[in-house]
């Protein structure tokens, strides 16, 4: 029976590939790639040659599984890797993994880079967190994604650079100063940069410099004064017998 190993790949700096991922790639019989050209760059960097690469992306997931189901059931080591980051996290993978479970095919996961985890760590915001995937493109769809934010929760989105300015404008129109934003650009790359503050402040600091890959963390401001915890011994102290 085959084994499918899901591998996280670097999100910017190729040196972030893990030792376990390198070993798994070297021993793989077949590699499913979101884009074979991108995966070849990773393999060339690792000096790994003569590997069979199969295109596996969001437009051909089901058809690829249907065509290759017999191969998936044979005794082969199969790798699933995205162009960057972790498969199934806003990348192909979920359908294949579900199919594997339904067909008793072993699945393993080798952890590594994940943009939304890195952005949350850098934000300094607190748990709990909710990963929302990519922002939608239309105003009403964006509002539906953000209108039910809960106080003390952190919400994380991937953002297309082509929609970034518009999305910030919609967030500002809906929340104004009531929301804090942490926006990180080109994470792990040479030109990594982050922006922090209200939607208007982030817009001003961006100065229309929207080339690159962005991850956004949002959190409603808590302007209420913290309530002091009740002293469970207070009543006892007041009513205690004095000698």
From TrEMBL:
Does the record's keyword annotation contain rRNA processing? yes
Q: Which GO terms describe its molecular function?
A: rRNA (cytosine-2'-O-)-methyltransferase activity
- Name a GO CC annotation attached to this entry: cytoplasm
Q: Which PROSITE patterns match?
A: RSMI
* InterPro entries with a match to the protein in the record: 4pyrrol_Mease, 4pyrrol_Methylase_sf, 4pyrrole_Mease_sub1, 4pyrrole_Mease_sub2, rRNA_ssu_MeTfrase_I, SAM_MeTrfase_RsmI_CS
Chief location of this protein?
cytoplasm
Q: Where is the Tetrapyrrole methylase domain?
A: 3-197
Pfam families given in the database record: TP_methylase
Q: Which UniProt keywords apply?
A: Cytoplasm, Membrane, Methyltransferase, rRNA processing, S-adenosyl-L-methionine, Transferase, Transmembrane, Transmembrane helix
- Ranges annotated as spanning the membrane: 109-135
* Subcellular location, record wording: Cytoplasm
Q: Which reaction does it catalyse?
A: cytidine(1402) in 16S rRNA + S-adenosyl-L-methionine = 2'-O-methylcytidine(1402) in 16S rRNA + S-adenosyl-L-homocysteine + H(+)
Q: Into which EC class is this enzyme placed? A: transferase
Question: EC number(s) per UniProt?
Answer: 2.1.1.198
**Per its database record, what is this protein's job?**
Catalyzes the 2'-O-methylation of the ribose of cytidine 1402 (C1402) in 16S rRNA.
- Which family does the similarity line name? Belongs to the methyltransferase superfamily. RsmI family.
NCBIfam families from the UniProt entry: 16S rRNA (cytidine(1402)-2'-O)-methyltransferase
What is this protein's record name? Ribosomal RNA small subunit methyltransferase I
Give the encoding gene's name: rsmI
């Amino acid at each position: 029976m085959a084994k499918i190993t899901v591998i996280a790949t670097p999100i910017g700096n190729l040196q972030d590939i893990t030792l376990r991922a390198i070993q798994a790639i070297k021993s793989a019989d077949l590699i499913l790639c979101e884009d074979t050209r991108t995966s070849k760059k990773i393999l060339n960097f690792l000096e790994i040659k003569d590997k069979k690469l199969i295109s596996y992306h969001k437009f051909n997931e089901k058809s690829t599984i249907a065509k290759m189901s017999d191969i998936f059931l044979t005794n082969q080591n199969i790798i699933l890797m995205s162009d960057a980051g972790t498969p199934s996290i806003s990348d192909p993978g979920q359908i294949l993994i579900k199919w594997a479970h339904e067909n008793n095919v072993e699945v393993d996961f080798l952890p590594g880079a994940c943009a939304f985890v890195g952005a949350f760590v850098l934000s300094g915001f607190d748990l709990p967190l909710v990963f929302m995937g990519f922002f939608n493109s239309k105003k009403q769809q964006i509002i539906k994604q953000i209108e039910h934010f809960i106080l003390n929760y952190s919400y994380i989105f991937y953002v297309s650079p082509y929609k970034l300015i518009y999305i910030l404008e919609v967030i500002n129109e809906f929340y104004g100063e009531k929301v804090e934003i942490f926006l990180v650009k080109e994470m792990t790359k040479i030109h990594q940069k982050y922006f922090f503050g209200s939607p208007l402040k982030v817009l001003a600091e961006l100065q229309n410099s929207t080339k690159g890959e962005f991850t956004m963390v949002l959190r409603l401001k808590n302007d209420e004064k913290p309530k002091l915890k009740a002293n469970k011994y207070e009543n006892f102290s007041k009513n205690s017998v004095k000698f």
